[in-house]
Amino acid sequence: MKLTSLLVITLLVLGCGAAFGQTFGFLSAGGIGEYCNYEQLTNNGADTYTGIDNTTAACGYPLNGTIGGFGVSVPASLAAGLPVTGKGVVYGDNIYDAGSEEYTGEQWSVFTQLHASRLIGHYGWVGIASFSGFFVGDNYGFLTNNIPTGEAASRGTSAGKTNLKDVRDVKK
Fold this sequence. Notes:
Order of helices and strands: HEEEEEHEEE
Strand order of the largest sheet: 1-2-3-4-5-6-7-8
Largest sheet: 8 strands, antiparallel, barrel
Distance between the termini: 57 Å
Number of helices: 2
Shape: globular
Structural class: mainly beta
């Protein structure tokens, strides 16, 4: 019986070992404001990523956002003015739907690096908001290993406000 239990545990650990996860908080472009949400990504192999945009722990949202994306490399020569380059993940995030608990038609898309930022010089994430094919806002900043809790976060979500509405105002 002990051998069977050990075998099952070993297979579970090895089976889960192919995927790895990472968690990063978001800091403002000035590096002083911490957003209340944070990303929790898992590499599922073949450079595909899933995870959550955690908005329940410190933001007080009713649901977390769902993340799905893939690994990319954005060379500085092709960045065309983007504040973030290098190896990372591009993902779609339904943070607006999660915050309003209904379909909003708004999309938050993010390019995030796979390591915490060095606060001097290199941003770690950039996101854009869109609605019905129109660009409606963006945000960028640094990635941090610090995860916001409760009142520690000094700002709303990294998705901020779009030009349309703040998701916290949808249900009021």
